[in-house]
Amino acid sequence: MKPLPPFLSGAVLLFWGWQTNLLPLALPMALVLEGSRYIRTRWDLSLSDFSRITDICTILLAGLAVFLLTTDARKVAVHVLMWLPVICFPLITAQQYSLAGKIDMRALMILARNKAVAADNRLRTIDAIAPYAALCLLAAGAGNVKDNSFFLGAFLFMGWALWPQRSKRFSPLLWMLLFLLIGGAGYTGQIGLYHLQRKAIWMATQWWFNRDSDPFNRSTSMGDIGELKLSSRIVFRVTSEEDPFQPILLREASYNLYRNTTWRSSPAEFTDVQPEPDKSTWNLHPSLQPDTSLMQPFTVWVPMKNDKALLKFPLGTYQLRNLPVSRLRQTPLGAIKAEEGPGLLGYQVHYQTESIGELPPTEKDLIVPSEEGDAIQQIMEELKLSSRQPEEIPKVVADFFQDEFEYSLKLRAAGKNKTSLANFLLSSRAGHCEYFATATVLLLRASGIPARYATGWSAHEPSAFGDQIVVRARHAHAWTQFYQNGLWHSLDTTSSTWREQEDQAASDMAFLRDLWDAVIFKFSQWRWGTEEGLLKKWWWLLLIPLAIIIIRKMRADRKIRRVKTESTRAAHNQQKSSPFARIEQRLKELGFERSPWEPPLRWVQRMRTLPSQGIFSDTMVSCLALSYQERFSQQGLTKSQYAELEDKVSMVLEELEAQKQENPKNDEK
Questions:
Q1: 391: Cβ–Cβ under 8 A, 6 or more apart, which residues?
Q2: Longest Cα–Cα distance in the chain
Q3: d(Cα 161, Cα 163) in Å, to the nearest integer?
Q4: Once rounded to an integer, what is the mean pLDDT over residues 642-662?
């Protein structure tokens, strides 16, 4: 393969700087890289020198990763990729200004370098300028510029690099036409991949969030929560100063339209909530003056997914504190979504027992679907709700479900021409929370009381590995909100045995997963806590051992020799040549010339197989071994070893002179 065209690597570096907004850094790097074409000075870098530079680049990479983990861990991979041209720059600069102009591949084998050298002492080099240019082009993509400049630049650079490699058998015009055709197909394909990626992310998000609930959509179906009841994984945690902690319902979303086993929210649009000056306090209802002495605040720990999280909070929440997110939005029905924050949110909830700040009831909060009308009417007649006072109806309904119904996740099939809710009310009288909540909402509405369907979680289980309350997937819950006397109230009519039944059905081995989750939670608190963590505060101390390691790596036992190229290189080699070179020169005069690509040891071994093998004695092989030690060992030769080498070289030269006198025909070759 032919080398890269002149100035391509520098141009790619500048393109990388432009795409990543690092052009002031890319410009001097490009000048240094392309300056090797005009600066004649070169350094005689050995394998150990390149190994040392590789180690320094590796340490810089590790230091950058640690720094990013303590500052912006969400985008570590992207930022590391963006800075790779800078990290690898010392190594590529060493190659360009080295005497060999290439890198010994054994220097890149960080973990198996010593084994590689011991197994094979042959020189294996690589010109890393082309891979470095490709790395710069890849890193330019990390700039995420929202236009077509990256694709166009990558296309032009690939054409620039491939132009010298083209076959001379075909017309340059034909080559250009084919290249443009391939570029057009690539552009069309990357647009298709972009839309395919968006679709795949959307589908994955739907699948993931449907495991907990359907909060970012406008609907939830009967059975969604029932699926969560089968899992014991911990979804989030709660900490409180209250001892003992009183079980509480934490809402995620509310719904007001029901039809065909599906609840929907209307209106469901999110609107922005404005933060207080400290940027971590959010007043959900700024115009209200709540009584702050009513309820003890508590903290909810929720992980963010894809930089988003649906917050959990009780009815009556008026303020959230210690919530360092860039954006907070809520719907008129009370769902709250946080965006662009740390990986673990630990926000403090301030609330009252009732809510006066949410959307007042509308006609939608009184609708009873026609398909459920007959069953609802039968229950109303059974409970005589039409003749009761509005204030006593919620209690009558709650007592009815507690006394007459059972909690069960195993539902019986509905009869012919009967809905699943009607089957629950009139036949089976057993079901999970979704049926209890839906039936309660419709009964209250039929009695003239505005009501809504709420989904969220029940926080009640103390953790075995800490002072938190753990909320598992099976703690997902549905209940009723009803409006009375100018306030919204919560009403949970699900049979009170549901918590005990689910806890008894849990696996006996769940504590192992709980232990692991506790470890992950503590690590996340340390990494993402709203307080300034130890690592975030003192990360710069990591630079001290990093600096010590770099300084030690830069201290070489023998100095790097700077030489001049071309004419001065030969003089330098002659001045610093090994004593074995005298033997090689004499053998060349005798007609045993070594090929330019052939290592001395391989050459001697090959010559010993020829008919005139008597010329190549064991003493010559011993000289070559000492010469290798002088050339490649960091310690070199001791004075006694160097004297031994000189003696053996003289001995071999005398043997060759004797061979010459015995076989004068060798001079004729």
A1: 484
A2: 136
A3: 6
A4: 80
Chain position carrying tokens 């506790």: 518
Q: Which residue has the tokens 């001395």?
A: 600
- For 607-641, the three-class secondary structure string (H helix, E strand, C coil) is HCCCCCHHHCCHHHHHHHHHHHHHHHCCCCCCHHH
Handedness of CA 179, 184, 185, 187 (dihedral sign): positive
Average pLDDT over residues 416-425: 82
Contacts (Cβ under 8 Å, ≥6 apart) of 483: 360, 361, 365, 449, 450, 451, 489
Question: What are the CA-CA distances from residue 598 to residues 117, 601, 602, 609 (Å)?
Answer: 18, 8, 7, 16
d(CA 240, CA 581): 82
Residues 6+ apart with CB under 8 A from 609: none
* CA 209 remoteness from chain centre: 19
Residue 646, Cβ density class (10 Å: 0-12 exposed, 13-18 middle, ≥19 buried): middle
The one-letter amino acid code at 104 reads: D
**What crossing angle do the helices spanning 129-140 and 89-96 adopt, rounded to 10°?**
150
Residue 123 exposure: Cα atoms within 13 Å on the Cβ side: 16
pLDDT in tens, 604-630: 777 777 665 566 677 777 887 887 777
Q: Are 265 and 275 in contact (CB under 8 A)?
A: no
Measured CA to CA, the distance from residue 631 to residue 612 in angstroms comes to: 28
Residue positions counted in the chain: 669
The two counts, helices (H) then strands (E), for the chain are 23, 24
Distance CA 567, CA 582 (A): 21
244 in Cβ contact with 235 (< 8 Å): no
Adjacent-strand bridge partners of 489: 482
Measure the CA–CA gap between 214 and 311, rounded to whole angstroms: 13
For residue 402, the model assigns a pLDDT of: 92
Sort strands 271-272 and 327-330 into parallel, antiparallel or unpaired: antiparallel
Rounded to an integer, what distance in angstroms lies between the CA atom of residue 637 and that of residue 641? 6
Looking at the DSSP bridge assignments, the partners of residue 491 are: 480
Amino acid in the structure at residue 191: I
pLDDT at 481: 93
Indicate the burial class of 215 (C-beta count within 10 angstroms; 0-12, 13-18, 19 or more).
buried
Q: Are 409 and 432 in contact (CB under 8 A)?
A: yes
Residue whose entry in the numeric block shows the structure tokens 């959010």:
282
> In angstroms, rounded to a whole number, what is the distance separating the alpha carbons of residues 46 and 106?
11
pTM check: above 0.85: no
Give CA torsion, residues 462, 467, 472, 477, to 10 deg: 60
pLDDT band at 29 (very low <50, low <70, confident <90, very high): very high
Please name which of 534, 470, 498, 492 lies closest in space to residue 232, comparing C-alpha atoms: 470
Q: State the Cα–Cα distance between residues 32 and 38, nearest whole angstrom.
A: 10
Rounded Cα–Cα distance for residues 434 and 229 (Å): 12
E-strand stretches of 463-564: 469-472, 476-484, 487-491, 561-564
Q: What is the dihedral of CA 62, 66, 68, 72, to 10 degrees?
A: 150
As given in the structure block, the two tokens for residue 345 are 């949110």
Can you tell me the distance from the alpha carbon of 325 to that of 309, in angstroms, rounded to the nearest whole number? Answer: 10
Contacts of 374 (CB under 8 A, 6+ apart): 422
Peptide bond into 267 cis (omega under 30): yes
Q: Does the N-terminal peptide bond of residue 244 adopt cis geometry, omega within 30 degrees of 0?
A: yes
Q: 529 is written with which tokens? A: 């806590």
Q: Give whole-number Cα distances, 307 to 207, 343, 541, in Å.
A: 17, 7, 29
- In this structure, how many other beta carbons lie within 10 angstroms of the beta carbon of residue 459? 25
